[in-house]
Amino acid sequence: MSKKIRVLLVDDQSLFREGLSTLLSIWDDIEVVGEANNGQEALEQTAVLNPDVILMDLRMPVLDGVAATRQLQNKFPHVRVIVLTTFDDDEHIFDGLKAGAVGYLLKDVQSNKLVEAIRAAAQGES
Question: Rounded CA gap, 83 and 60, in Å?
């Protein structure tokens, strides 16, 4: 069995995180190693859990997703961040990618597309 992709979920909506965690548990090659309620918690969890991929919302309290992504890329450049949000305007997309995210998906994405993006990010693709 190959190494599982370690995923950290970062979103201020606990029901969304729980549902996403349950959904991702279907795939044998993906393991949700933790959840964070905001960007600051994401930084703390990343230091402890060492995820391969982070699914990051943009709008959260304490530290938003753009600022958190920027800090994560400075402190943990090996970790791949995928923005997963409801915002589809160019400004949000550009800000997330400029901060260091390797991908940008909307929350209404089909589950198989999300898993493909996680796998691609873990393999170093954008």
Answer: 13
pTM of the model: 0.94
Query: How far is the C-alpha of 62 from the C-alpha of 28, rounded, in Å?
Result: 33
- Could you read off the pLDDT tens digit of each residue along the chain, which spans 126 residues? 479 999 999 999 999 999 999 999 999 999 999 999 999 999 999 999 999 999 999 988 999 999 999 999 999 999 999 999 887 777 778 888 899 999 999 999 999 999 999 999 999 876
Q: Which two tokens stand for residue 51?
A: 């995820």
Here the tokens at position 99 are: 């901060």
Instruction: Give the DSSP letter string of 12-33.
Output: S-HHHHHHHHHHHTTSTTEEEE
Tokens representing 74 are: 């400075």
Domains of the chain (ranges plus CATH)? 5-122 (3.40.50.2300)
Cα 87 to chain centroid, rounded? 15
- Rounded CA gap, 85 and 79, in Å? 19
